[in-house]
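Sample log: ABC transporter ATP-binding protein.
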Amino acid sequence: MSEAVLELRAVERTYKTAAGGLTVLNGASLSVGRGELVGLVAPSGAGKSTLLHVAGLLERPDGGDVALEGRGCNALTDRQRTLLRRGRVGFVYQFHHLLPEFSALENVVLPQMIAGAGKGAAKRKASDLLNRVGLGPRASHRPARLSGGEQQRVAIARAVVNRPAVLLADEPTGNLDPTTSETVFDLLVSLVREEGMAALIATHNLTLARRMDRVLTFQDGHIAAFEE
């Protein structure tokens, strides 16, 4: 495997419940290299979303550490983590979460401007990327006028427009029909390979999971190789 871009090092995560502590991650470790796609397959409630939230610096682990491009993140302040997440991590969810009042182009422009890009440069880059994902003619349309697959392609463009080192996806095709799922997944693979991102993708779709470089699952809060 190429150099590690994303590492989870013996990560622990326990939630407080009325019945006591609920341990979801118990010494979970993994490593994802540049340009590598790693699938994460497990039943609902096993901890996939928690793992992605910890990996994406949305939650702090109770133990262990997360490293992005070799940099440990536990000692960082909340502001430092936010800036690192904004610049180096892209997220794709099952539901696109596009801003409904903005066009496809504007949805891809916005994260660039938040990161400090000028409006003109951000519009040019967004337009180029939407053309690349086959949505150039639909760039001026708001999400409500786009199909589910088109909305998800815009969401992927938004996630990668700032060229993150890590792409985290939580059931990115889970809300799509099988044919559209294939199209969206093919796009995701193409962008990951071409941009050299490290991708960790949670999915229930075993057909798509088998096309990734490796597939992982949970065993008592640990990460293990998935075996059918």
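Observation: The mean pLDDT is 87.
Observation: The first helix runs from residue 48 to 55.
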